[in-house]
Amino acid sequence: MTDTLLSAPLAQLEQRDAFIHRHIGPNADEISQMCAAIGVADVDALIDQTVPAAIRLKVPLPLAEPQPEHVALAVLRKLAEKNVVKRSMIGAGYYGTHTPAVILRNVMENPGWYTAYTPYQAEIAQGRLEALLNYQQMVIDLTGLELANASLLDEATAAAEAMTMARRVSKSKSNAFFVDAATFPQTIDVVRTRAHFFGYELVFGDAASAGEHDVFGALLQYPNAHGAVADLAAPIAALKAKGAVVALASDLMALVLLKSPGSLGADIALGSAQRFGVPMGFGGPHAAFFATREAHVRSMPGRIIGVSKDARGNTALRMALQTREQHIRREKANSNICTSQVLLANMAGFYAVYHGQQGLKTIAARIHRHAAILAEGLRAAGFKLTSASFFDTIEVDTGVHTAQILTAADTAGYNLRHASATSIGVSVDETTTREDIQTVLGCFGATANVDALDVSVAQAGGAIPAGLLRTDAVLSHPVFNTHHTEHEMLRYLKKLQNRDLALDHSMISLGSCTMKLNATSEMIPVTWPEFANLHPFAPREQATGYLQMIEGLADYLRAVTGFPAICMQPNSGAQGEYAGLVAIARYHASRGDIQRKVCLIPKSAHGTNPATAQMCGMKVVVVDCDERGNVDVEDLKAKAAQYSNELAALMITYPSTHGVFEESIREICAVVHENGGQVYMDGANLNAQVGLTSPASIGADVSHMNLHKTFCIPHGGGGPGMGPIGLAAHLAPFMADHVVAPTGNADRQHKGQGAVSAAPFGSASILPISWMYIAMMGGSGLKRATEVAILNANYLASRLGAHYPVLYTGGKGRVAHECILDIRPIKAATGITEVDIAKRLMDYGFHAPTMSFPVAGTIMVEPTESEDLAEIDRFIDAMIAIREEVRQIENGIWQADNNPLKNAPHTQADIMGDWDRPYTREQAVFPLAWVAENKFWPSVNRIDDVHGDRNLFCACVPMSDYAD
C-alpha cells in the first residue's frame, strides 16, 4: 500500500474529496455488501430501478469540485473578513449581547444540544424539555401572563400569528385589525403580507387612539419603535371593552424593569428573546416569545411544553396538546408553524438561569443607565428627544446635521439608526460601555463628562415613569436562583444533556426529517464574529462578505434545483411553503386571475401543505392516492378540469410522502399547467433528488428547500431551520422583499413585495453551514450522497421487509430514501402499536422513526446517507429483535398487557428491587449484547399524555414535586 501511494499522482494524495467520505457513512466495501444484499450489481443499477429515467438529469450538477475542509474554511474566512463589524446601536429589535461562554461552548457549539430532534419522544428528551419549560417560565414571569409557548420563528411572524389568533378568539364582527404605527417596520411588513391573504383590513394609528376603532384585535408596541415607553392600560381597556383582543409586542430585557403586558391588560405578549444571549447573526435565528391567558391555550400557535406523570407517578415533561399540530388540523389551521427555535429558546432560557433575577435586573438597569446618560448629555448639548420616557432607545431631532452625525459615528466605528431625514435613533444594549457613550456623544458634538452625567441621572432615578416600573417578583423559581457560578451552570447543562438522545449517541431514523451528519467544519463559522455580530440592517457595504456568501449559496441552490431565482428569506420549511404560495397568488393576481383560489393537494401530504394553502386564502381540494401510494392521476385530471377556471396550484411532495418516485410526475405537472395552475413542490424529500433530478426538470414552478434536512443545518431540538425557495423566471418578480433592508440590487424584479419573515435573509447566521456542506461535497459528492441515501433505505427495507410489511414501493419494488413499515397487522394480532415499538426502541438506544405519518398505524424510516453499515445493521437488529418480542406475545408466552413493549421504556428504577415481570431484567434493559456497550438510560418511564392534557400545567415544576 505504501509503495502504491508513493507512486500515486499528487491529485490522489491531496484528497480533495476527503470530506465526501467523512460525510457518507458506508465505504466502498459496505456499499458492495448492501448492493449484493438487495440484489443489484451496483448503485447505478439501483438508481436505474428507483428513479424514473424520464426525469433523470442528463448532465452533472454545474458545481465546482469538492474542497477539503480546511480549504473551504479558508475561503469562507476570506469572505467573512470582508464584513465590517461596527458597534451596532441600530436597535429596532436586534441588539448586541454577551453569550455566556459556558452556554456558547456547552449548548450552541455542542452537538448534544444542536443535533437533537423535536421532542416528540418525550422520555428521551427530558433535558431539552426542562430547558424549554425554564424558557416558558421566564416568559410567563416577564410578560405577566399565564401561559407561554416554547418559541416561534421571529418577532414579526409572532405578531402575524397574534393577529390570526385574535381573529379566532375575538367575538367582534369587525374584519379590521389595528396596528400601532410605531411598531417596528419589519413587523408591519410581515403583518401586511399575512393580513392581505386572510382578507383582514389593517387600521394604523397612534397607540393612544386605538380604542376609538371598531376592530377584532390590535397590535401595540411597548416600548415602541421610537423607544418611547407609555402607559397603554387605557387604550388596552378601551379596545377590550369593544371585544378586541390586544397583543403587545415587547422586549424581554425592558420587561425586567417595566410593568408587564399582563398587568396592563394585554391578552397576548410577544417579541424576540434575541438579546438574552443570542447573537444578532445578521437577523437570526432568534426565538420569538409568545404568551397569552390560559383561557386561550387551544388557540395559541406553536408548541407548548407541559407537565405530566410517568408510569411510576413521577413528574415528567412532554409536549402538551399535540393535536393542535398542523398535520391534525390541516386546512382548518390558521398557522403552518412546524418549526420553532428550540436551540435559541434554550440559550435564552439558560441566559436567565445563569444570570438569575438579580443579574438580569443589573444588566437591564445598566442598559437603561447608559441610555439615560446619553439622553441627558444630548439634551445638555441642545438636542431635542422625541420622548422623555424610554428604556434603551432614544430618537433625536438632528435636523440638518443628520448626515454629518451619521458620518462621524461611522468614522468612529458605530452604526446609528437613520430614523428619518432629520432624526437619528440610538439604542444601547448589554455590550455598551461608558466609553461607547462618551464616543457617541462626541459624534453629536457633545462634550459632556459621562461620570458627571451619571451622578445627575442616578439622582433623577432614570427615564422610566414611576408608574410603569415593575413591582412584582420575577424569576423566583429555584432554577433561576441556583446556577450562578460557572461550575454550577456547567453541571446543570450536562445533567440536562444526559437526559436527551441526539445524533451524538445514535442514528435518528425519522422519515421525512433527514437527520444526518451536521459536520463540525460546517458549524465552526456560525460563531465567527463577522457572521455572529452583524445587525441585519447594517449598511450593505459593511456586509459585503455576508452578501457574497448568501449569493454564493443561492448559486449552489440554483444549480441543485434548476430554478433561476432563489429567495433566501423564509426561516423554516413551513415559511418556505408560505412564501412559495404567496408568490403564486401574487402571480395570478398580476394577470387578473383573482378567481384562482383552488389548491389541489394529495391526501398523503404533510399537514403544513393544506394549512399553508388556507393561510393564502385558497380552497383546498384533496386528490386521491391509489393503492400503491401514488397520486391518482385520473382523479387529479378530473378535479383539475372541474376547477380549471379557479385552479391556482398543486402542492406535491417528490418523492412522495409515501416514499416512492412516482412515474407520472411530469404528467401530473402538465395537467396542472394545462388547466392554468402552478406546481408547488414541497422540498421535504429533496435529499432523494439532488444530483439525480431536480424540481425544475420535473416540472415544478416553485419549491422550498429544507436546509435543515438536505443541506445539513442541524435541527437544534426543533429549530432553527431555513426554507429558501427556488422560483421559475415568471414567478421571480413575486418573491418576498423587505421594507427596511433590500434583498438584492436596486433593479431587483421583486422590489417592494411584502416580507414573510422579520429579517431580509431569514436566519442568515446558519447559512454558512449549508455553504460549507455544498462546497466540501461538490457536485459529485452531492450526487453520491443522494445515491447512498437511496441505497441505505432500500437495504433497510429489504432486510426488514420479511418482518414488517413495506407499505409502498415503486414500479420495480424499490423505495426512495425512506420507507413505510406497516404495524397495523401486528396491532390487529397482539394490540402492540407503533407507539409501543417506538418506546421499546429507546431500550435499544434508538430514537423512534416517524410514527403514523403519512399513514396511521405505520412507522416511516429514513436512514440517510451518513449512517454506516454497522449502525444501520444495529437498528435493523433492534427492529428484528422487537418483532421477535412481539411473537412472544402472539404465541402466548407474554401477556398482551405485561411485556417489554408495553412496559417500555425501562429506567434504572425498574431494575432495582423486586422483579415480578415475565421477562428478565437483562431482557428489559440489555436486549441485545451490544446495547450494554453504550447504554442510553431513559430518565423517566412512559409518560401519561392524557393526564398532562387534562391537568394542563406549563410552567416550572415546584421543587417539592421532585422531592415527592
Automatic annotation (TrEMBL):
Record domain Glycine dehydrogenase C-terminal: where: 785-906
Coiled coil regions in record: none
Recorded catalytic activity of this chain's protein: N(6)-[(R)-lipoyl]-L-lysyl-[glycine-cleavage complex H protein] + glycine + H(+) = N(6)-[(R)-S(8)-aminomethyldihydrolipoyl]-L-lysyl-[glycine-cleavage complex H protein] + CO2
Example GO molecular function: glycine binding
Keywords: Oxidoreductase, Pyridoxal phosphate
Cofactor(s) listed in the protein's UniProt record: pyridoxal 5'-phosphate
PANTHER family on file: GLYCINE DEHYDROGENASE (DECARBOXYLATING) (PTHR11773:SF13), GLYCINE DEHYDROGENASE, DECARBOXYLATING (PTHR11773)
Domain Glycine cleavage system P-protein N-terminal, first and last residues per copy: 21-443, 476-731
EC number annotated for this UniProt entry: 1.4.4.2
Protein name per Swiss-Prot or TrEMBL: Glycine dehydrogenase (decarboxylating)
Enzyme class: oxidoreductase
Keyword Oxidoreductase in record: yes
